[in-house]
Design brief:
By secondary structure, the protein is mainly α. The protein has three domains: 86 residues, no CATH class; 135 residues, no CATH class; 206 residues, no CATH class. 70% of the residues lie in helices and 2% in strands. It contains 20 helices and three strands. A hairpin with a 4-residue loop joins strand 1 and strand 2. Helix 10 runs antiparallel to helix 12 and helix 19 packs antiparallel against helix 20. It starts with a helix and ends in a 6-residue tail after the last helix. 25% of the residues are buried.
């Protein structure tokens, strides 16, 4: 009971927590130090003393950065209060973590040992499942149970440990448990937990179907598409579909979802059903009806990228699909976008130029070009196909991508961190925390260029906060993308695309 009262008091106090901008600045410095030490540690030719000290300095900077981020988000006195209120729960959690760390090594040895066939249980299960399905489609199928190779004389694959489905099962387990914990007040938890094994079974079954499809595509004469595009994207497509179905099931099944009963509504009231229906539709739709308009273009690009990459080899020939998907989504919600301020000032293109210079700075300093197969793939196309593909790539970079990403990250995420009713939050009220978290999520999309991506996200968010309108961020984003496209086409640095 006391824990419940203390937890409630912490929920009340969370609105008064001040974000430590100075601590967060030092945290950013630690991140830069970690990145630099990582490059130094990986380099060769260091003296013996520094080569031994660098790993320890790297760990120290990493731990210090994590601690500073925690203190920037939640003050030390609140952390102490949390420890006191949750006692002895945190002791149990630490004990469980300690024993899990102790048992990890013997359990891993057991899994890799001969008692369970050297950890190939899932691999063997996938192998036999794929064999059973492919026998229905391929008359000349060949199998090697010892090496777990299956296919045809024209194309074959080996069921490696990475193909056993363990990674997908782990990701789905984390997602389903996190989803249920986040929406624990809106669902019957013990009932909803029954959906988790079903979701895991679906993910594993999709993995079997994925491997079967790889063999069929390769046997049909498209080994590049099978092993490059489809192999890497089909897993994410399956995970996304199962995760979406799971989230929708927890929100729409009345047996799982909790039905709120307003006190003012009496059972005998004939309007009771209408009131309950309105409440139910509101909960299913989400915290704000504007959410779909802000996220639809970005999600359309993601869905189109899954399809285009899965159907491609080394060259994504269906890239124009991304442009059309985003354009359709933007046109669908065009009436909602009229409520936003799309005006911009002279600082927007200036910020775009600055981001472009930061983006190409590593190339200018190294006097080299990024390695890429894109140029040779484009040159293999006919002139009409080549210029059409480049035209759609530039159009997407300058028009649809800036609009979609700014709506999703600056329009939605940066304000959603502040309030569930994000549409009512003015852009001028963006906080350091919301800018930092949304920019970090934005930068992680850019892979090896994640640092520049985070800096770009911060710049776009700052100009939005300063001017109070999304039009400045869109123009800044479009300017940097336009200059980057010009750089790629003029200098031939295709690796930046």
């Amino acid at each position: 009971m006391f824990i419940g009262l203390g937890y409630s008091s912490l929920k009340i106090q969370r609105e008064d927590l001040q974000f430590g901008s100075r601590l967060f600045t030092v945290h950013i410095v630690c991140v830069v130090v970690v990145v630099c030490l990582g490059y130094v540690t990986a380099s060769r030719g260091l003296n013996a003393a520094f080569s031994h000290a660098a790993p320890f300095a790297l760990r120290a900077a990493l731990l210090l950065g994590i601690a500073l981020l925690a203190l920037a988000c939640v003050p030390l006195r609140t952390w102490i209060q949390i420890v006191r209120i949750t006692n002895p729960l945190w002791l149990y959690a630490c004990g469980a973590g300690f024993f899990a760390a102790i048992l990890r090594s013997p359990l891993q040895s057991l899994w890799d040992g001969s008692l369970i066939d050297r950890g190939r249980i899932l691999q063997v299960a996938v192998f036999h499942s794929v064999h059973a399905i492919l026998r229905l489609f391929l008359p000349d199928i060949t199998v090697d149970p010892a090496s777990l190779v299956i296919g045809t004389p024209r194309f074959a694959v080996m069921i490696a440990k990475a193909c056993s489905g363990m990674e997908g099962l782990g990701l789905m387990m984390v997602f389903t448990i996190a989803w249920l914990l986040y929406f624990r007040k809106e669902v019957h938890f013990l009932r909803a937990i029954l959906l988790v094994p079903f979701a895991l079974g679906c993910v594993w079954s999709f993995n079997v179907v994925r491997i079967c499809a790889i063999v069929l595509i390769g046997d049909a004469g498209a080994p590049d598409i099978a092993m490059v595009g489809f192999h890497s994207q089909a897993g994410w497509i399956a995970f996304t579909l199962v995760a979406l179905a799971f989230s929708m099931a927890t929100q729409r099944f009345s047996w799982i979802r909790k039905m709120p009963r307003p006190a003012a509504v009496h059972t005998g009231d004939p309007a009771n059903a209408d009131v309950r229906r309105v409440v139910d539709e509101t909960r299913v739709a989400g915290e704000s009806p504007a959410t779909a308009s802000y996220l639809a273009p970005f999600l359309a690009i993601l869905a189109a990228s899954f399809i285009s990459r899965a159907a491609s080899g080394h060259f994504e020939w269906l890239y124009p699909l991304r442009f059309f998907a985003a354009a359709v989504a933007i046109w669908r919600f065009r009436h909602e976008y009229r409520k936003l301020d799309w005006h911009f000032g002279w600082m927007a293109p200036v910020a775009g130029v600055a981001i472009f210079l930061v983006w190409v700075a590593p190339v200018l300093l190294s006097n080299g070009r990024s390695a890429s197969l894109l140029e040779s793939e484009l040159m293999a196309l006919s002139p009409v196909m080549r210029f059409s593909w480049i035209g759609f790539r530039v159009a997407a970079a300058v028009i649809t991508v800036p609009i979609a990403e700014e709506l999703a990250f600056r329009g939605y995420l940066s304000r959603r961190i502040i309030s569930s009713d994000f549409a009512a939050v003015p852009f001028s009220r963006l906080t350091v925390l919301s800018i930092g978290l949304s920019s970090a999520a934005f930068g992680l999309m850019y892979g090896q260029h994640w640092i520049v991506g985070i800096l770009a996200g911060v710049a776009y968010a700052v100009i939005v906060k300063w001017r109070g309108r999304i039009g400045d961020a869109v123009i800044a984003h479009a300017t940097s993308n336009l200059l980057l496209a010009a750089w790629v086409l003029v200098c031939g640095d295709w690796g930046l695309w």
